[in-house]
Specification:
CATH superfamily of the largest domain: Immunoglobulins
CATH architecture of the largest domain: Sandwich
CATH topology of the largest domain: Immunoglobulin-like
Order of helices and strands: EEHEEEEEEEEEHHHEEHEEEEEEEEEEEE
Helix content: 10-25%
Strand content: 35-45%
Largest sheet: 7 strands, mixed
Shape: flat
Structural class: mainly beta
Radius of gyration: 28 Å
Number of strands: 25
Oligomer: single chain
């Protein structure tokens, strides 16, 4: 391996990070790029942004009044971490020519004195300018354990490494792009001249570039942006219709107005626009009720029932239901069933479909006919999976929902011709993940969980002989950190892998 050198650049091999020293600038620079870009020759190296870092790092890079390079870094500790000697390293790199010549110009290493969760600090360093064109200069900040053991990649390309990089960031000089006297990082319209920096609605976007006036037009609830005769925002049932249309039909967000609808449609201020906001908006319009921000611990249940007598989807809760949304994956077209669904009086339903993927949205438009049980007569034999379930109470808060699959007649369901992971629910999840999969025939099955380094962290099923049909298994990730995980199902003939994101 390579010896530790304080002024070396840094590199990554197979997910393990190390110090390297080179006199050859091109080789040195190529190794260094792996930290940020996540590639190194034939190794498949995830970029640093995909790791579950124990700290948050934001940086700024600008020229001071003397024209020197000033780098600042704000750090917050998010999680416990182990380190022998943590340093924060400031780097200036300069680009010389395409495809060959680039180099690290300056490196400065400072002590890093944060260790406890919740601690914050600002670090800064200034390098003297060498007169280079600022377009060729990039600053890098790295937080690293510099006294750990040497990294040791294994045959699988991933190995232990004590000189772990905890976080890194890079950026070019933060210039005043629009020449209004305010650098881009502090400019609320960085690409548009606005020296006044006026921001009437206080949303962080200046009046000069803000397409959504959230103070005078797109206030919470005024989804369609209409005004009354004296110019005040008008919140009425047309906004409810517009919001449900936005959810069901215009979820791509490709039109500028979609962003305004989304902002005004975030009625309960939880930064998610969904059926809960629709129910809250109904209550605003009909009863002048302020949207609820309360949390709720009551659980609801969404069940698929199939037996020789009845087929249906049932949503039930001890708390009355005011609306719901979920996604259905089906074997066949079910439009005719959805078009004829019978809901309680005063309820409204909307759906969209694409290649047998259905998104359903339903709510109590009357505001007075919420129910503890909703029954949807849809042939459950056609349903492969239900996901993305959100249930709203009549008061406009979320009912935490459990999904049950109760099949009593598996023979009626057409199975795929190969082992298949149908869904990972919920995704993102915390801390329980349900893995839904099917087997076309009896076979030996293993299901395992892997982290981003390719390490197996849990085995859910180990070479168990299972019958054909639909199966589920759950993973309790309470003891694991947030991050991306891979679920792998393996039989003697087939391997399939899908991603699941754990957010705590």
């Amino acid at each position: 391996m390579y010896s530790f050198q304080p002024t070396s650049p840094y590199a990554v091999i197979g997910g393990s990070y190390m110090f390297l020293g080179y006199s050859d600038t091109q080789t040195m620079y190529n190794w260094y790029l792996g930290i940020i870009n996540g590639d190194f020759y034939n190794y498949d190296v995830p970029p640093i942004a995909s790791y579950d870092t124990p700290m948050d790092l934001s940086m700024d890079f600008n020229l001071d009044e003397q024209g020197n390079y000033n780098i600042t870094a704000d750090v917050e500790i998010l999680d416990d971490f182990t380190s022998n000697d943590t340093k924060i390293i400031f780097i200036i790199k300069k680009f010389y020519s395409t495809g060959y010549f680039a180099t690290v110009k300056n490196i400065e290493t400072l002590d890093f004195n944060l260790s406890d969760v919740g601690q914050t600090a600002s670090f800064s360093h200034t390098f003297q300018s060498d007169g280079s064109d600022v377009e060729d200069i990039t600053a890098v900040v790295i937080i690293q354990d510099v006294e750990g053991d040497q990294c040791s990649p294994s045959s699988s390309g991933v190995g232990p490494c004590g000189t772990r990089i905890f976080q890194a960031a890079q950026m070019q000089v933060n210039q005043d792009i629009d020449n209004d006297g305010i650098i881009s990082a502090e400019d609320n319209c960085p690409d548009m001249y606005n020296p006044s920096q006026l921001d009437d609605d206080g949303d962080g976007f200046g009046n000069s570039c803000d397409i959504c006036d959230n103070l005078n037009v797109f206030v919470p609830g005024n989804v369609n942006g209409d005004l009354n005769e004296i110019g005040d925002p008008l919140v009425n049932f047309f906004d409810v219709i517009d919001l449900i249309d936005y959810l069901a039909l215009d979820d791509q967000g490709v039109l500028p107005i979609s962003e305004c609808k989304s902002q005004a449609g975030n009625v309960n201020f939880d930064n998610n626009v969904n059926i809960i906001d629709v129910v809250s908006l109904v209550n605003m319009v009909l009863f002048d009720n302020v949207p609820s921000r309360q949390s709720n611990t009551v659980e609801g249940i969404l069940s698929i029932i199939q037996n020789p007598v009845t087929e249906k989807i049932i949503i039930e809760s001890d708390t009355k239901i005011g609306g719901f949304q979920f996604k259905l994956s089906t074997l066949t077209d079910i439009d005719k069933y959805l078009d004829n669904i019978l809901l309680p009086e005063g309820w409204s339903i909307k759906y969209r479909s694409n290649n047998n993927e259905y998104n359903l949205f339903a709510y109590d438009a009357s505001g007075v006919n919420s129910s503890n049980e909703i029954i949807l007569n849809i042939p459950s034999s056609s349903i492969l999976d239900v996901s993305d379930i959100i249930i709203a109470s009549k008061d406009g808060f979320e009912i935490k929902t459990v999904y049950n699959k109760d099949y009593h007649s598996q023979g009626l369901i057409s199975l795929p011709n190969r082992p298949n992971i149908h869904s990972l629910y919920p995704n993102p999840f915390n801390p329980f993940l349900t893995v839904s999969y099917s087997l076309p025939s009896e076979t030996t099955v293993s299901i395992s969980i892997y982290n981003m380094l390719g390490e197996r962290v849990s085995t859910l099923i180990n070479e168990r002989y299972l019958t054909s049909g639909y199966h589920t298994v759950s993973w309790d990730a309470s003891a694991f950190p947030s991050g991306m995980y891979f679920v792998k199902i393996q039989t003697p003939t087939i391997i399939e892998t899908k991603k699941a994101l754990l957010l705590k």
